[in-house]
Design goal:
Blueprint lengths: L7 H9 L7 H9 L6 E2 L5 E2 L2 H17 L3 H12 L36 H8 L3 H9 L13 H13 L9 H18 L5 H21 L3
Antiparallel strand pairs: 1-2
Helix pairs in contact: 3-4, 5-7, 8-9
Amino acid sequence: MAKPELSIGEVLRILRAEFSGVTISKLRFLEAEGLVSPARTASGYRKFSADDVERLRYVLTAQRDQYLPLKVIKEHLGAIDRGLRPAVAGPPVAPSAPSAGPRADDFGATGIELRLTRAELLAAAGVSAELLGELESHGLVVADGKHYGGDAIVVAQAAAELAAYGIEPRHLRPFRTAADREVGLIEQVTGPRRTEQTEQLAALTVRLHTALVRSRLPR
């Protein structure tokens, strides 16, 4: 997160280069509507970060170019806060599924943890609600409250491709069991907290699994 260090006057000068009609009153109004939340000094002065400026730029662009009402823009910002990426037009979209790896970086923290609604997951993965329901019933995709993590995209897409070969979600439960066992083994070494060592071990276990499967396939 960028350090909040810009005054409202400095933010105004930055944005006026692109939005000539913006005023301090407009910026204060957007803050009052909850579209941006600048930090406050002990004296009560607003301090904006570079991220706040980009957020304001997104709002002003959506108003000017797409004529979106503030309610819709606020929903879009909420989606961006959950890890979706802005689209040129229309609502934010989920990022592309990560590479299969395996590298230690694939198991590390990514800054903003992706949190998708059910509709966003279905759209991002390109699967049917029926398939997602089956994956959930077998514990292969699990929601955290009302949202799903980015790995759910990979699981759903892989399951859909496997289904084309006649492999149904119920056949995939051993993968979930194996994953649970591998995580249990890693936690025996590193403990429950995620560390750099955790990421390295996770990459190694996936590499080992891949090599074992490959070695057992017919030549």
